């Protein structure tokens, strides 16, 4: 390589000078580029440009994410609106079908009632016609008897036969009229019963929905406490008494006296866990007869009698004007109150 460079210098000095000048210019340019890259201003400028580019990228990414979320939210709202609209349309369709069925049933019932009433009116007209025929025959019989055109024996025999036929026809009319009246009453009762059942069903559905809302508001939609126990207790009185007895005699799950699983007897007679009279595990008798830890009357360990007598000699644990309840009517009720 060095030999080629020396040969080039000997053969053509002008070309060599040009090559040297070009390399020198290139070296100067590279030095300037290196100085520019190594300068703190260029580094800060490049860093600011990169940060601006990253910021734009993050903004575009967040904008696309927000746009996607907006599109998804819009789609969800559209689906919910579609479901709500479909449910509303189905409800309207059910109400329309129900109204049509009720109208058809009402038309059928009205036609049946009108037919029965028409037959009942026919029976009434037939009874009126029979009465008119009887009156007409009586008048004719009287006329023929006055004129002497018929003998009394023949008139009496024909009158008895006529009365028999008329009585048969009247009994038939009465039976048919009673049958038609019963049929009319049955149709009216049936239509009224159907209306009452529909109203009761709607009211029952509303009451069930209200009860469900109350249970959700009280116990929550999931994890309702003691729901199974409440269902068993609601089934019968014996189940309620059994569960109440187990609750009263249940053992505490731990030593904390504030635990609700303590039975009433265990709550009334537990042992104090320490010497602090404010401890809730003091029984009612121990609280009433506890001695004050000091002479301060504001001490909560003062018994009720001592607190009343320290204020007044005639003090009483029962407030003035307090209405005392009557004594228990049975020993079982007394044990339940204790």
From TrEMBL:
Residues forming coiled coils: none
Domain of life: Eukaryota
Organism: Petromyzon marinus
InterPro entries to which the protein is assigned, alphabetical: Apoptosis_promoter, PDCD7
Positions of region (Disordered): 190-216
A Pfam family this chain is assigned to: PDCD7
Gene Ontology CC: one annotated term: U12-type spliceosomal complex
Compositionally biased tracts (Acidic residues): 194-216
Official protein name in the record: Programmed cell death protein 7
């Amino acid at each position: 390589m060095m030999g080629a460079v020396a040969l080039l210098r000997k053969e053509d000095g002008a070309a060599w000078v040009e090559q040297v000048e070009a390399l020198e210019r290139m070296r100067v340019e590279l030095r300037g580029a290196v100085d520019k890259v190594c300068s703190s201003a260029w580094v800060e400028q490049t860093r600011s440009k990169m940060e601006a580019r990253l910021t734009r990228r993050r903004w575009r990414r967040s904008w696309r994410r927000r746009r996607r979320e907006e599109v998804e939210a819009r789609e969800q709202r559209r689906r919910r609106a579609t479901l709500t609209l479909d449910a509303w349309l189905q409800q309207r369709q059910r109400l329309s079908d129900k109204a049509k069925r009720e109208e058809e049933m009402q038309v059928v019932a009205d036609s049946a009632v009108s037919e029965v009433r028409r037959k009942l009116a026919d029976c009434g007209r037939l009874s009126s016609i029979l009465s008119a025929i009887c009156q007409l025959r009586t008048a004719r019989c009287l006329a023929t008897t006055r004129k002497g055109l018929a003998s009394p024996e023949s008139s009496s025999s024909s009158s008895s036969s006529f009365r028999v036929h008329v009585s048969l026809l009247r009994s038939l009319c009465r039976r048919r009229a009673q049958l038609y009246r019963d049929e009319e009453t049955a149709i009216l009762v049936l239509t009224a019963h159907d209306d009452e059942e529909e109203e009761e069903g709607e009211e029952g559905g509303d009451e069930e929905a209200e009860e469900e809302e109350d249970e959700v508001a009280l116990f929550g939609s999931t994890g309702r406490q003691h729901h199974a126990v409440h269902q068993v207790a609601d089934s019968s009185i014996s189940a309620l008494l059994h569960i109440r007895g187990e609750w009263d005699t249940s053992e505490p799950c731990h030593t904390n006296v504030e635990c609700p699983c303590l039975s009433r007897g265990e709550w009334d007679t537990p042992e104090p866990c320490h010497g602090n009279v404010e401890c809730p595990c003091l029984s009612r008798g121990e609280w009433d007869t506890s001695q004050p830890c000091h002479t301060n009357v504001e001490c909560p360990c003062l018994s009720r009698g001592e607190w009343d007598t320290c204020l007044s000699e005639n003090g009483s644990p029962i407030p003035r004007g307090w209405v005392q309840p009557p004594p228990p009517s049975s020993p079982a009720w007394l044990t339940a109150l204790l």
